[in-house]
Amino acid sequence: MVSLSGGNPAIQPLGGLIELGHAKGYRFALETQGSVARRWFADLDLLVLSPKPPSSGMETDWGLLQDCRNAAQGTDTILKVVVFDEADYAYAREVAKRHHDLPMYLQPGNHTPPPPDDDKAVVDQNGIDERMRWLVDRVTADKWFEARVLPQLHVMLWGNKRGV
């Protein structure tokens, strides 16, 4: 399985790569914020739509997110929202409500991202663990049992190192 992520990979012309990779037996997953729909989404094995929550400062264009879903007809598609605070949690609930037929994953955000030129910046793992417990407790208190809460594994394994 080849995972395509980082920034917004949907802005890249990846259709040819996916076609070539499939011919050689590879499978492809793509994670995107859901702001650019591509016809080749239908050729993916998994599409992860991860719209940006309020803490990002970005606004969600719900029509574009739906366009991504429409482009991915026949492709397994899931939702993922990174949650930093109550506003992000409420946003995740809204995303899930609008797309109730898709699996929803929640992750506690890394509140210690590195400066762009420093991949050795220390991660506050205790703080992330506290956010994880808060998120699990919040989902449990709401009886939102359809949501799956998972850590950001890349942060746990590699900290703030870029390019992994």
TrEMBL record:
Entry EC no(s)? 4.3.99.3
InterPro entries linked: Aldolase_TIM (IPR013785), Deazaguanine_synth (IPR017742)
Official protein name in the record: 7-carboxy-7-deazaguanine synthase
What one GO molecular function would you report for this record? lyase activity
Q: Which UniProt keywords apply?
A: 4Fe-4S, Iron, Iron-sulfur, Lyase, Metal-binding
Q: Can you name the source organism?
A: Roseovarius litorisediminis
